[in-house]
Amino acid sequence: MILVRDVFQAKYGKADELVVLFKEARLKWPAIAQYGSRVLTDASGPFFTIVTETEVVSFAEWERTIAEVFSLPEFGNWFTRMQPLVESGRREFYNIVS
User: Fold this and answer.
1) Distance (Å, rounded) from C-alpha 68 to C-alpha 21?
2) Is the CB of residue 59 less than 8 Å from the CB of residue 70?
3) Which CATH number do you get for residue 48?
4) Structural domain count of the chain
5) How far does Cα 79 stand from its chain's mean position?
6) CA 45 to CA 54: how far, in whole Å?
7) Which DSSP letter does residue 97 get?
């Protein structure tokens, strides 16, 4: 199993809006609910940090899932609403060993 963590640094004061968008995405596209199945916010460290977590069996499954998400016609509109809220981001992959 692989854990995919997308770590976003929201613009100052925009973290709550970003969380709302991630929750909206899960409701809009339940067929791909495993994408970003958990949303975390900072309790320490850099302010306005939002993390989404997705568990997949393999990198191949990740590639299929992300391709499915990006191919959704509504995704472009959703992403356009997300962009002004985000300062930066990164993606991390972890092997789940226990």
Assistant:
1) 18
2) no
3) 3.30.70.100
4) 1
5) 11
6) 22
7) -
Please tell me the distance from the alpha carbon of residue 48 to that of residue 5, in angstroms, as a whole number: 16
Looking at per-residue confidence, does 27 or 60 come out higher? 60
Quote the DSSP letter at residue 31. G
- In the Cβ-directed half-sphere of 9, how many Cα atoms lie within 13 Å? 7
Residue 83, classed as helix, strand or coil, is: helix
What residue numbers bound the domain in which 16 lies? 2-95
Determine what percent of the chain falls in helix, strand and coil, rounding each to the nearest 5. 40, 30, 25
For residue 31, pLDDT over 80 is answered with no
Phi, psi for residue 44 in degrees, rounded to 5: -155, 175
CB 85 within 8 Å of CB 18: yes
pTM over 0.90: no
Phi, psi of 91 (to 5 degrees): -120, 135
Angle subtended by helix axes 75-82 and 15-28, to nearest 10:
170
